[in-house]
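Query structure, 137 tokens:
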């Protein structure tokens, strides 16, 4: 009798664990996390301070996204002479093809970046999911 109770408790536990794993794999809410800046397209040289000649990258992890999910980066100069800090310097759009776990946006310039403070905001399907500030020195 005690063995039957133990087996029943173990079976219920296994079913609950399976349900949790299925929910995590299939039913997790789409999202983005772990935002960071880097100077290279591999994301190895992490920094928030760039030189005027650097390309600027923002990396982030994504989960639960489907093909067709839209991402957008909005880049702002916060204290640049003649630049309204509320108006993006550049907007970059990307539609995910699915299966990605990490994405990035790159901002490059034809000439050198003006020295100052900047911000990049990242949107997923028109909802802001993250931002990073950085400087050019």
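Result returned for the query:
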């Amino acid at each position: 009798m005690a063995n039957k109770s133990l087996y029943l408790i173990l079976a219920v536990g296994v079913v609950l664990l399976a349900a949790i794993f299925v929910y995590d794999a299939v039913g997790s809410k789409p999202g983005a996390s772990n935002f960071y800046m880097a100077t290279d397209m591999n994301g190895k040289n992490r920094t928030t301070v760039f030189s005027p000649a650097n390309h600027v990258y923002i990396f982030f992890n994504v989960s639960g996204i489907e093909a067709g999910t839209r991402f957008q980066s909005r880049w702002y100069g916060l204290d640049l002479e003649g630049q309204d800090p509320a108006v993006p310097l550049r907007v970059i759009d990307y539609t995910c093809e699915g299966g990605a776990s990490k994405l990035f946006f790159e901002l490059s310039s034809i000439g050198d970046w003006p020295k100052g403070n900047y911000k990049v905001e990242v949107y997923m399907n028109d909802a802001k999911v993250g931002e990073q500030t950085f400087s050019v020195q």
